[in-house]
Amino acid sequence: MSRTRRCPLVAGYLWSMISAEFDLAYEYESTGDGILVPVRILHSGRSVELTARLDTGTAHCLFHRSFADLLDIRWEQGLPQSYRTVVGNFRAYGHELTLHTWDFQGSAMVYFHEAGSPNNNYLGRTGWLDRVRLGLVHYDQRILIAGY
User: Fold this and answer.
1) Structural domain contains residue 8
2) Which of 7, 11, 71, 88 minimizes the number of CB atoms within 10 Å of its CB?
3) Residue 4 covered by a domain
4) What pTM value is reported for the model?
5) Does the structure show a pLDDT above 70 at 57?
6) What CATH number is attached to the domain comprising 101?
C-alpha cells in the first residue's frame, strides 16, 4: 500500500510516494458506533472475548469493569487513572494483562471502568496502537496490520 504526500517546493509541489508493508489484512465491522475489533483478554489462565472500538483519540485501552469481574480481577485495586470526556469525567484502574486481537497478542496495561454500558470498550493508543502499524481502507472496510 502506498500513500502520496505533498512536499513543498519554492513554486509548486513535488509528489512523492511512500510505501508501507503490512503482514495481514482483515475486514472489520463498521457501525454507527465506530470500527469494531474482536478482542480476547487473558489473565491468570482465564479469558474473555468482547468487541472493542478502535479509537486513535483514546490514550489507553479501556474496558468495562464487567470483563474484569469475569476474569476474577479486583479492578479497583489497579493503577488509578482519571479521564475527561465531553460527556463527563470518570475513573478507571489499570492492570497488566494479555490482549489478543486477530493474530496479534501481547502484554499491555489496560484500564477497567464502570462508566456507561458494558459495550463501552476501546482499543487506544497505549497498549494496542503503539504495538502495530495500521493501515485503514474505510471504503473497503479493511484494516491492514503489522506488528512492531
Assistant:
1) no
2) 11
3) no
4) 0.83
5) yes
6) 2.40.70.10
